Amino acid sequence: MERELLLLGLLRRQDMHGYQLHDFIESYMTMCVDLKKATAYFLLDKMEQMGWITQNSTQVGNRPTRRVYALTPLGEENFQRLLRENLASYLPARFGSDIGLAFVGELPATEAITLLQQRRVTLAESLANAQAIPPHEGVLQWVIEHQVVHLTAELQWLDQVIGRLSENTHS
Amino acid sequence: MERELLLLGLLRRQDMHGYQLHDFIESYMTMCVDLKKATAYFLLDKMEQMGWITQNSTQVGNRPTRRVYALTPLGEENFQRLLRENLASYLPARFGSDIGLAFVGELPATEAITLLQQRRVTLAESLANAQAIPPHEGVLQWVIEHQVVHLTAELQWLDQVIGRLSENTHS
DNA sequence: GGGCGCATGTAATGAGTTACATGATTGA
DNA sequence: TCAATCATGTAACTCATTACATGCGCCC
Question: pLDDT digit of tens for each residue in chain B (171 aa)?
């Protein structure tokens, strides 16, 4: 229900059409959601059918009509509910990368280090990107800060792993 | 491919049947994977068809025959490949909980704090659980340590958020 | 005039989960 | 004896992605 919450939250601040919503999410919220176009349209249709949002078609020139969505009272109700549910619950993050870590002992330490250093490059880039985003008010503020906190911890951790693996090679 | 890597990695250390694999994963690896029974069986079938593993049925009493799997050379090859790929790449974690955070400003600070404190309880429990696991050698060592590092950072971060929100209520 | 951005939509596919069904064994 | 555990399997379903198709408008 996170995706629904997100769409409702964005529509609450401003009526928008599907393309616009997807565009915003893709531009500014990639660090916490990945919502494809088809999914966005699908979800909007679904929420319209449930009566959470209403649709208002506007024509601009000869382009395909924009389907501009707005929250209904029922939508607002559900926004409130979903927001509270989301804030109150902690859903543990799963790290697919940990499975590799589980078997890192099967590789010679020197090779493991080389591979993890490649991982480190991408991770450091992600962190740099997150830190490069100028301070935000509003929607993104906490999300970006959280991302920075998380990535910093990940980087420290990875360095520790690499450090301990290289101790093994010196002996 | 993480799930395949995991199954291959476990089979590499010891031949096992589906139930056994699922059981091990559910008992000891919940913090990094959630693999349902049906999925485990499906994946094993798939990997058998691809020639990564072979099956050896053994009957114990009158029970359903155990289908004990073992790695083939092709399976070993793919284990090596998948492990290297996994270690070398960083796949960013997505936090569904961040979407709530994005809209936390829509709630009165006092209520937001109450909700986040509920989140904190679960989070603190997860951390306590992870820390309670006795020091491990082998497969789980790094995974558990990583989990502790991550959860500690999350908890600190959450406390910071709650702290800053309560500043708002004092003014 | 050609490619990109706007704006929608849908059919096929895939991965994974749910919810079943079966039936023997073990232990309280 | 009754529930839980062992051990498998599969059909239906959900959710999301991929990969298309359409066609206008804008800018170089």
Answer: 999 999 999 999 999 999 999 999 999 999 999 999 999 999 999 999 999 999 998 877 777 889 999 999 999 999 999 999 999 999 999 899 999 999 999 999 999 999 999 999 999 999 999 999 888 778 889 999 999 999 999 999 999 999 999 988 876
Q: Which two tokens stand for residue B153?
A: 């950072």
Tokens 């890192």 appear where?
A: A104
The amino acid present at B112, given as its one-letter code, is A
d(CA B31, CA B133): 12
**Which bases of chain C come closer than 7 Å to a protein CB?**
5-11, 16-19, 22-26
Rounded to whole angstroms, how far apart are CA atoms B43 and B34?
14
Instruction: Determine how many CB atoms are found less than 10 A away from the CB of residue A137.
Output: 7
pTM above 0.85, yes or no: yes
Name the closest nucleotide to A62, judged by C1' and CA: D24
Kindly state whether B115 is in contact with chain A, defined as any CB-CB distance less than 8 angstroms: yes
Residues 6+ apart with CB under 8 A from A92: B31, B126
Dig out the tokens for A117 from the structure.
């250093």
Distance (Å, whole) CA B134 – CA B147: 14
Report the candidate in A150, A38, A88, A102 with the shortest Cα–Cα distance to residue B112.
A88
Q: What are the start-end ranges of the E strands in chain A?
A: 16-17, 53-58, 66-71
Block residue for tokens 């589980």: A102
Rg of chain A's alpha carbons, rounded to an integer?
21
For chain B, first and last CA: distance in Å?
A: 51
A134 at interface of B, judged by CB pairs closer than 8 A? no
